[in-house]
Amino acid sequence: MKLKTLLLGAALTVIAAAAQAQTAVKIGVLNDRSGLYADISGEGSAIAARMAIEDFKASDKGIKAEVVVADHQNKPDIGSAIARQWYDRDGVDMIVDVPTSSVALAVAQIAKEKNKVYINSGGGTSDLTGVQCSPNTVHWTYDTWALANGTGTAMVQRGGNTWFFITADYAFGAALERDASALVKKAGGQILGSVKHPFPGTDFSSFLLQAQASGAKVVALANAGGDTINSVKQAAEFGIVKGGQSIAGLLVFITDVKSLGLQVAQGLVLTEAFYWDANDQTRAFSKRFAEKAGGKMPTMVQAGVYAGTLHYLKAVEALKSKDDGVKVVNKMKEMPTDDPLFGKGSIRADGRKIHDMYLFEVKKPSESKGEWDLYKTLATIPADKAFRPMSEGGCPLVKG
Protein backbone atom coordinates (compact mmCIF):
# COMPACT_ATOMS: atom_id res chain seq x y z
CA MET A 1 0.00 0.00 0.00
CA LYS A 2 2.83 2.34 0.91
CA LEU A 3 4.56 1.53 -2.41
CA LYS A 4 1.37 2.27 -4.36
CA THR A 5 1.06 5.59 -2.55
CA LEU A 6 4.66 6.45 -3.35
CA LEU A 7 4.22 5.52 -7.02
CA LEU A 8 0.99 7.52 -7.23
CA GLY A 9 2.71 10.50 -5.62
CA ALA A 10 5.61 10.26 -8.07
CA ALA A 11 3.21 10.06 -11.02
CA LEU A 12 1.30 13.11 -9.83
CA THR A 13 4.58 14.98 -9.42
CA VAL A 14 5.55 14.17 -13.02
CA ILE A 15 2.12 15.27 -14.28
CA ALA A 16 2.31 18.49 -12.28
CA ALA A 17 5.82 19.20 -13.57
CA ALA A 18 4.67 18.63 -17.15
CA ALA A 19 1.73 20.97 -16.62
CA GLN A 20 4.02 23.63 -15.18
CA ALA A 21 6.43 23.22 -18.11
CA GLN A 22 3.67 24.16 -20.55
CA THR A 23 3.73 27.83 -21.52
CA ALA A 24 0.27 29.43 -21.63
CA VAL A 25 -0.04 32.10 -24.32
CA LYS A 26 -3.05 34.32 -24.87
CA ILE A 27 -3.34 36.10 -28.23
CA GLY A 28 -5.73 39.02 -28.68
CA VAL A 29 -7.11 39.68 -32.17
CA LEU A 30 -8.14 43.33 -32.02
CA ASN A 31 -9.88 44.75 -35.07
CA ASP A 32 -13.02 46.06 -36.74
CA ARG A 33 -15.66 43.35 -36.49
CA SER A 34 -18.71 45.38 -37.48
CA GLY A 35 -17.70 48.41 -39.58
CA LEU A 36 -16.10 49.30 -42.89
CA TYR A 37 -12.95 47.19 -42.25
CA ALA A 38 -14.74 44.06 -41.02
CA ASP A 39 -14.33 42.22 -44.34
CA ILE A 40 -10.59 42.83 -44.58
CA SER A 41 -9.92 41.83 -40.95
CA GLY A 42 -12.83 40.94 -38.64
CA GLU A 43 -13.59 37.30 -37.89
CA GLY A 44 -11.32 36.24 -40.75
CA SER A 45 -8.31 37.42 -38.76
CA ALA A 46 -9.42 35.37 -35.75
CA ILE A 47 -9.76 32.32 -38.03
CA ALA A 48 -6.24 32.98 -39.35
CA ALA A 49 -4.77 33.22 -35.82
CA ARG A 50 -6.42 29.94 -34.81
CA MET A 51 -5.12 28.27 -37.98
CA ALA A 52 -1.58 29.41 -37.10
CA ILE A 53 -1.86 27.80 -33.65
CA GLU A 54 -3.21 24.60 -35.23
CA ASP A 55 -0.53 24.45 -37.95
CA PHE A 56 2.27 25.18 -35.46
CA LYS A 57 1.01 22.25 -33.37
CA ALA A 58 1.42 24.48 -30.33
CA SER A 59 0.09 21.98 -27.79
CA ASP A 60 2.62 19.36 -28.98
CA LYS A 61 5.43 21.85 -28.31
CA GLY A 62 4.50 22.74 -24.74
CA ILE A 63 2.53 25.87 -25.64
CA LYS A 64 -1.10 26.23 -24.62
CA ALA A 65 -2.34 28.98 -26.95
CA GLU A 66 -5.70 30.72 -26.74
CA VAL A 67 -7.27 33.39 -28.99
CA VAL A 68 -9.55 36.16 -27.72
CA VAL A 69 -11.22 38.76 -29.93
CA ALA A 70 -12.62 42.27 -29.61
CA ASP A 71 -14.05 45.04 -31.79
CA HIS A 72 -12.24 48.40 -31.52
CA GLN A 73 -14.91 50.06 -33.72
CA ASN A 74 -12.15 52.06 -35.47
CA LYS A 75 -11.91 54.35 -32.41
CA PRO A 76 -8.54 54.96 -30.70
CA ASP A 77 -10.09 55.42 -27.25
CA ILE A 78 -11.98 52.10 -27.45
CA GLY A 79 -8.96 50.29 -28.89
CA SER A 80 -6.69 51.69 -26.16
CA ALA A 81 -9.12 50.70 -23.39
CA ILE A 82 -9.38 47.12 -24.69
CA ALA A 83 -5.60 46.80 -25.10
CA ARG A 84 -4.98 48.11 -21.60
CA GLN A 85 -7.54 45.75 -20.05
CA TRP A 86 -6.22 42.79 -22.06
CA TYR A 87 -2.62 43.42 -21.00
CA ASP A 88 -3.38 44.43 -17.39
CA ARG A 89 -6.24 42.16 -16.30
CA ASP A 90 -6.94 39.48 -18.89
CA GLY A 91 -3.48 37.99 -19.31
CA VAL A 92 -3.10 38.75 -23.03
CA ASP A 93 0.53 38.39 -24.14
CA MET A 94 0.32 39.50 -27.75
CA ILE A 95 -2.10 41.69 -29.72
CA VAL A 96 -2.36 41.17 -33.48
CA ASP A 97 -4.09 42.79 -36.49
CA VAL A 98 -5.42 46.29 -35.51
CA PRO A 99 -6.56 48.01 -38.72
CA THR A 100 -7.16 51.79 -38.56
CA SER A 101 -3.86 53.62 -38.14
CA SER A 102 -4.99 55.92 -35.34
CA VAL A 103 -5.90 52.85 -33.26
CA ALA A 104 -2.73 51.04 -34.37
CA LEU A 105 -0.48 53.85 -33.11
CA ALA A 106 -2.35 54.04 -29.79
CA VAL A 107 -2.04 50.29 -29.18
CA ALA A 108 1.69 50.43 -29.99
CA GLN A 109 2.21 52.88 -27.14
CA ILE A 110 0.33 50.69 -24.66
CA ALA A 111 2.25 47.55 -25.71
CA LYS A 112 5.50 49.44 -25.10
CA GLU A 113 4.31 50.74 -21.73
CA LYS A 114 3.29 47.23 -20.61
CA ASN A 115 6.27 45.49 -22.27
CA LYS A 116 4.03 43.17 -24.28
CA VAL A 117 4.14 42.05 -27.92
CA TYR A 118 2.24 43.79 -30.71
CA ILE A 119 2.15 42.47 -34.29
CA ASN A 120 0.32 44.84 -36.60
CA SER A 121 -1.11 43.45 -39.82
CA GLY A 122 -4.11 45.69 -40.47
CA GLY A 123 -2.88 49.25 -39.87
CA GLY A 124 -1.11 51.03 -42.70
CA THR A 125 0.79 54.02 -41.36
CA SER A 126 4.53 53.78 -41.99
CA ASP A 127 5.05 55.78 -38.77
CA LEU A 128 4.81 52.42 -36.91
CA THR A 129 8.35 51.74 -38.09
CA GLY A 130 9.30 55.40 -38.45
CA VAL A 131 9.16 58.18 -35.90
CA GLN A 132 6.79 56.18 -33.66
CA CYS A 133 8.62 52.85 -33.86
CA SER A 134 8.76 50.71 -30.73
CA PRO A 135 10.89 47.77 -29.52
CA ASN A 136 7.61 45.92 -28.83
CA THR A 137 6.06 46.32 -32.30
CA VAL A 138 6.41 44.32 -35.50
CA HIS A 139 4.68 45.74 -38.59
CA TRP A 140 4.01 42.67 -40.67
CA THR A 141 2.05 42.97 -43.91
CA TYR A 142 2.16 46.33 -45.69
CA ASP A 143 2.49 50.04 -45.02
CA THR A 144 1.70 53.35 -46.69
CA TRP A 145 5.23 53.72 -48.12
CA ALA A 146 5.10 50.27 -49.76
CA LEU A 147 1.66 50.98 -51.25
CA ALA A 148 2.76 54.36 -52.57
CA ASN A 149 6.01 52.93 -53.88
CA GLY A 150 4.21 50.20 -55.82
CA THR A 151 1.10 51.89 -57.18
CA GLY A 152 2.35 55.49 -57.27
CA THR A 153 5.58 54.78 -59.12
CA ALA A 154 3.85 52.43 -61.57
CA MET A 155 1.11 54.93 -62.43
CA VAL A 156 3.63 57.70 -63.16
CA GLN A 157 5.66 55.35 -65.34
CA ARG A 158 2.45 54.59 -67.27
CA GLY A 159 1.99 58.29 -68.02
CA GLY A 160 -0.10 59.32 -65.02
CA ASN A 161 2.07 62.31 -64.13
CA THR A 162 -0.55 64.63 -62.59
CA TRP A 163 -2.39 63.60 -59.39
CA PHE A 164 -5.34 64.66 -57.25
CA PHE A 165 -5.89 62.98 -53.86
CA ILE A 166 -9.17 62.08 -52.16
CA THR A 167 -7.99 61.29 -48.64
CA ALA A 168 -9.60 59.80 -45.53
CA ASP A 169 -9.30 62.37 -42.75
CA TYR A 170 -7.33 60.39 -40.14
CA ALA A 171 -3.81 59.08 -39.52
CA PHE A 172 -3.82 56.43 -42.26
CA GLY A 173 -5.07 58.76 -45.00
CA ALA A 174 -2.60 61.47 -44.04
CA ALA A 175 0.34 59.02 -44.04
CA LEU A 176 -0.72 57.48 -47.36
CA GLU A 177 -1.09 60.85 -49.09
CA ARG A 178 2.24 62.01 -47.64
CA ASP A 179 4.14 58.91 -48.75
CA ALA A 180 2.46 58.72 -52.17
CA SER A 181 3.02 62.43 -52.89
CA ALA A 182 6.72 62.10 -52.13
CA LEU A 183 7.14 59.06 -54.38
CA VAL A 184 5.05 60.54 -57.22
CA LYS A 185 7.22 63.67 -57.18
CA LYS A 186 10.37 61.54 -57.04
CA ALA A 187 9.15 59.66 -60.13
CA GLY A 188 8.63 62.97 -61.97
CA GLY A 189 4.93 63.51 -61.30
CA GLN A 190 3.05 66.57 -60.04
CA ILE A 191 0.36 66.96 -57.35
CA LEU A 192 -2.48 69.22 -58.52
CA GLY A 193 -4.50 69.13 -55.30
CA SER A 194 -6.16 67.11 -52.57
CA VAL A 195 -9.30 67.03 -50.49
CA LYS A 196 -10.08 65.26 -47.20
CA HIS A 197 -13.28 63.33 -46.59
CA PRO A 198 -14.81 62.35 -43.23
CA PHE A 199 -13.91 58.90 -41.89
CA PRO A 200 -15.89 56.82 -42.49
CA GLY A 201 -17.61 58.46 -45.47
CA THR A 202 -20.69 57.72 -47.54
CA ASP A 203 -21.18 60.50 -50.10
CA PHE A 204 -18.07 61.29 -52.15
CA SER A 205 -19.83 63.37 -54.83
CA SER A 206 -18.33 66.77 -54.00
CA PHE A 207 -14.82 65.32 -53.64
CA LEU A 208 -15.05 63.50 -56.96
CA LEU A 209 -16.30 66.65 -58.69
CA GLN A 210 -13.25 68.53 -57.41
CA ALA A 211 -11.00 65.74 -58.67
CA GLN A 212 -12.74 65.83 -62.05
CA ALA A 213 -12.42 69.61 -62.28
CA SER A 214 -8.69 69.45 -61.48
CA GLY A 215 -7.98 67.72 -64.78
CA ALA A 216 -5.47 65.42 -63.05
CA LYS A 217 -4.66 62.28 -64.99
CA VAL A 218 -4.79 60.22 -61.79
CA VAL A 219 -7.45 60.44 -59.10
CA ALA A 220 -5.78 58.81 -56.09
CA LEU A 221 -7.91 57.29 -53.35
CA ALA A 222 -6.01 57.49 -50.06
CA ASN A 223 -8.64 55.53 -48.15
CA ALA A 224 -9.60 51.89 -47.61
CA GLY A 225 -12.36 49.33 -47.18
CA GLY A 226 -15.91 50.62 -47.49
CA ASP A 227 -14.64 54.14 -48.26
CA THR A 228 -12.71 52.85 -51.28
CA ILE A 229 -15.65 50.74 -52.48
CA ASN A 230 -18.03 53.71 -52.32
CA SER A 231 -15.48 56.06 -53.93
CA VAL A 232 -14.93 53.72 -56.90
CA LYS A 233 -18.67 53.08 -57.36
CA GLN A 234 -19.45 56.80 -57.34
CA ALA A 235 -16.49 57.56 -59.62
CA ALA A 236 -18.02 55.13 -62.13
CA GLU A 237 -21.35 56.95 -61.87
CA PHE A 238 -19.58 60.26 -62.58
CA GLY A 239 -17.84 58.75 -65.61
CA ILE A 240 -14.39 59.69 -64.34
CA VAL A 241 -12.60 56.85 -66.14
CA LYS A 242 -14.68 57.30 -69.29
CA GLY A 243 -13.64 60.96 -69.20
CA GLY A 244 -9.99 59.98 -69.50
CA GLN A 245 -8.87 60.05 -65.87
CA SER A 246 -7.48 56.97 -64.08
CA ILE A 247 -8.41 55.81 -60.59
CA ALA A 248 -5.53 54.75 -58.35
CA GLY A 249 -6.73 52.76 -55.36
CA LEU A 250 -3.76 53.17 -53.06
CA LEU A 251 -5.07 50.50 -50.69
CA VAL A 252 -7.38 47.97 -52.31
CA PHE A 253 -8.14 44.53 -50.90
CA ILE A 254 -9.43 41.46 -52.69
CA THR A 255 -12.70 41.73 -50.75
CA ASP A 256 -13.13 45.28 -52.10
CA VAL A 257 -12.72 44.05 -55.68
CA LYS A 258 -15.14 41.19 -55.02
CA SER A 259 -17.68 43.66 -53.65
CA LEU A 260 -17.27 46.05 -56.58
CA GLY A 261 -17.39 43.33 -59.23
CA LEU A 262 -15.06 43.13 -62.21
CA GLN A 263 -17.32 45.24 -64.41
CA VAL A 264 -16.66 48.26 -62.16
CA ALA A 265 -13.19 47.40 -60.83
CA GLN A 266 -11.53 46.17 -64.05
CA GLY A 267 -8.26 47.92 -64.84
CA LEU A 268 -7.60 49.11 -61.28
CA VAL A 269 -3.88 48.96 -60.51
CA LEU A 270 -3.07 48.10 -56.91
CA THR A 271 -0.31 46.87 -54.62
CA GLU A 272 -0.69 43.93 -52.25
CA ALA A 273 1.58 41.70 -50.17
CA PHE A 274 -0.42 38.49 -50.71
CA TYR A 275 -2.75 36.89 -53.25
CA TRP A 276 -4.50 33.62 -52.60
CA ASP A 277 -3.76 32.26 -56.10
CA ALA A 278 -0.02 33.01 -56.13
CA ASN A 279 1.28 29.44 -55.74
CA ASP A 280 0.43 25.95 -54.48
CA GLN A 281 1.05 26.87 -50.82
CA THR A 282 -1.15 29.99 -50.87
CA ARG A 283 -3.88 28.08 -52.67
CA ALA A 284 -3.80 25.22 -50.15
CA PHE A 285 -4.00 27.61 -47.19
CA SER A 286 -6.74 29.70 -48.82
CA LYS A 287 -8.87 26.64 -49.55
CA ARG A 288 -8.71 25.66 -45.86
CA PHE A 289 -9.40 29.25 -44.80
CA ALA A 290 -12.41 29.54 -47.13
CA GLU A 291 -13.93 26.39 -45.64
CA LYS A 292 -13.93 28.13 -42.25
CA ALA A 293 -14.85 31.61 -43.56
CA GLY A 294 -18.01 30.94 -45.54
CA GLY A 295 -16.25 30.61 -48.89
CA LYS A 296 -14.28 33.87 -48.68
CA MET A 297 -10.64 33.97 -49.70
CA PRO A 298 -8.22 35.59 -47.22
CA THR A 299 -7.13 39.20 -47.54
CA MET A 300 -3.47 40.16 -47.12
CA VAL A 301 -4.33 41.42 -43.60
CA GLN A 302 -5.69 38.01 -42.59
CA ALA A 303 -2.69 36.31 -44.22
CA GLY A 304 -0.42 38.59 -42.17
CA VAL A 305 -2.21 37.65 -38.95
CA TYR A 306 -1.58 33.97 -39.73
CA ALA A 307 2.11 34.45 -40.60
CA GLY A 308 2.80 36.87 -37.74
CA THR A 309 1.17 34.60 -35.18
CA LEU A 310 3.15 31.63 -36.51
CA HIS A 311 6.46 33.49 -36.17
CA TYR A 312 5.54 34.72 -32.69
CA LEU A 313 4.89 31.14 -31.56
CA LYS A 314 8.28 30.08 -32.98
CA ALA A 315 9.95 32.82 -30.91
CA VAL A 316 8.10 31.80 -27.72
CA GLU A 317 9.13 28.18 -28.30
CA ALA A 318 12.77 29.19 -28.83
CA LEU A 319 12.83 31.35 -25.69
CA LYS A 320 10.65 28.97 -23.63
CA SER A 321 9.14 32.17 -22.26
CA LYS A 322 6.63 34.83 -23.27
CA ASP A 323 6.82 37.26 -20.33
CA ASP A 324 9.25 39.91 -21.61
CA GLY A 325 7.80 41.52 -24.73
CA VAL A 326 11.04 43.13 -25.90
CA LYS A 327 12.91 39.81 -25.58
CA VAL A 328 10.24 38.03 -27.63
CA VAL A 329 10.30 40.70 -30.36
CA ASN A 330 14.11 40.63 -30.40
CA LYS A 331 13.97 36.85 -30.87
CA MET A 332 11.49 37.36 -33.73
CA LYS A 333 13.95 39.79 -35.34
CA GLU A 334 16.85 37.41 -34.80
CA MET A 335 15.09 34.44 -36.45
CA PRO A 336 14.56 34.44 -40.24
CA THR A 337 10.87 34.38 -41.12
CA ASP A 338 9.55 31.50 -43.18
CA ASP A 339 5.91 30.61 -43.76
CA PRO A 340 3.76 29.27 -46.61
CA LEU A 341 2.10 32.62 -47.37
CA PHE A 342 4.97 35.12 -47.54
CA GLY A 343 7.89 32.74 -47.98
CA LYS A 344 11.28 33.59 -46.52
CA GLY A 345 11.91 37.03 -45.07
CA SER A 346 13.20 38.95 -42.09
CA ILE A 347 12.27 41.58 -39.52
CA ARG A 348 14.44 44.69 -39.40
CA ALA A 349 15.66 46.57 -36.35
CA ASP A 350 12.85 49.13 -36.82
CA GLY A 351 10.22 46.34 -36.63
CA ARG A 352 9.45 46.31 -40.35
CA LYS A 353 8.79 42.80 -41.71
CA ILE A 354 10.45 42.48 -45.12
CA HIS A 355 9.06 40.44 -48.02
CA ASP A 356 8.13 40.89 -51.68
CA MET A 357 5.19 43.09 -52.65
CA TYR A 358 3.17 42.69 -55.84
CA LEU A 359 1.69 45.08 -58.38
CA PHE A 360 -1.62 43.73 -59.68
CA GLU A 361 -4.20 44.79 -62.22
CA VAL A 362 -7.85 43.81 -61.79
CA LYS A 363 -8.96 41.49 -64.59
CA LYS A 364 -11.66 42.20 -67.12
CA PRO A 365 -14.76 40.00 -66.69
CA SER A 366 -13.77 38.11 -69.86
CA GLU A 367 -10.36 37.23 -68.36
CA SER A 368 -11.66 35.75 -65.11
CA LYS A 369 -12.00 31.97 -64.84
CA GLY A 370 -13.68 31.81 -61.42
CA GLU A 371 -15.39 33.66 -58.61
CA TRP A 372 -12.12 34.73 -56.92
CA ASP A 373 -9.94 34.88 -60.06
CA LEU A 374 -9.58 38.64 -59.89
CA TYR A 375 -5.94 39.74 -60.37
CA LYS A 376 -3.20 39.50 -62.94
CA THR A 377 0.36 40.20 -61.84
CA LEU A 378 2.09 43.19 -63.42
CA ALA A 379 5.29 43.09 -61.38
CA THR A 380 6.96 41.60 -58.32
CA ILE A 381 8.59 44.28 -56.18
CA PRO A 382 11.55 42.54 -54.49
CA ALA A 383 11.78 42.65 -50.70
CA ASP A 384 14.83 44.91 -50.65
CA LYS A 385 13.01 47.50 -52.78
CA ALA A 386 9.44 47.09 -51.48
CA PHE A 387 9.74 49.02 -48.21
CA ARG A 388 11.18 52.38 -47.14
CA PRO A 389 14.94 52.26 -46.51
CA MET A 390 15.49 51.94 -42.78
CA SER A 391 17.80 54.97 -42.78
CA GLU A 392 14.96 57.21 -44.04
CA GLY A 393 12.30 56.34 -41.45
CA GLY A 394 13.58 58.27 -38.44
CA CYS A 395 13.15 55.30 -36.08
CA PRO A 396 15.04 55.89 -32.81
CA LEU A 397 15.87 52.15 -32.60
CA VAL A 398 18.05 52.40 -35.71
CA LYS A 399 21.63 53.17 -34.77
CA GLY A 400 23.80 55.31 -37.03
TrEMBL record:
GO terms for biological process: amino acid transport. Gene3D superfamilies: 3.40.50.2300. Residues 25-363 form the Leucine-binding protein domain. It comes from the Bacteria. Coiled coil: none annotated. Pfam families: Peripla_BP_6 (PF13458). PANTHER family: LEUCINE-SPECIFIC-BINDING PROTEIN, PERIPLASMIC BINDING PROTEIN OF ABC TRANSPORTER FOR NATURAL AMINO ACIDS. Belongs to the leucine-binding protein family. This is ABC transporter permease. It comes from Alsobacter soli.
